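Reopening this one. Same input as before:
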Amino acid sequence: MPSLIQLNTLIKLSYLRKVTRNLIYMPSYEIEIILNRQLADCLSIPVFITDTQGNLIFYNEPAEELLGQRFEETGEMPVEVWGTIFTPMDDNSTIIPPENLPLVKTLRDCYPHHDTFWIKSIKGNKEKISVTAYPIIGRENKFLGAVAIFWKTKYNEN
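Same output, byte for byte:
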């Protein structure tokens, strides 16, 4: 059985591997983007990180279920690709135009936005989700991108 010192060393090495992996995949990004990615990697809820144009520059493991692919397999994705993977709808099953989605609003005006709506997932399931998006504002008030955090709500319809 490993000692506490050995376990502590293994935990530190695992953390260093994660940090190093993040730096390898995001070498040319601002530190604020890298830190948001590090946070997303630690969360058990789906997180998207986009650049200022809406291109998906990272998504965490829980988001892989919605997208149907691992980030290591897809890498960064233009908005034209990831934006078509699921269909957002209101309670009446009316498709919500992209400009009304929290992430798109945040990219447009650099303010946080939140909404709850239905999506038809890649698996064909209809799920009610809540999404909160916030801008990544760096030093000197420089807009660097946006983060969307989302989770299934209490009521789902399959």
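So the earlier flakiness isn't reproducible anymore. For the record, DSSP finds six helices and six strands in the chain.
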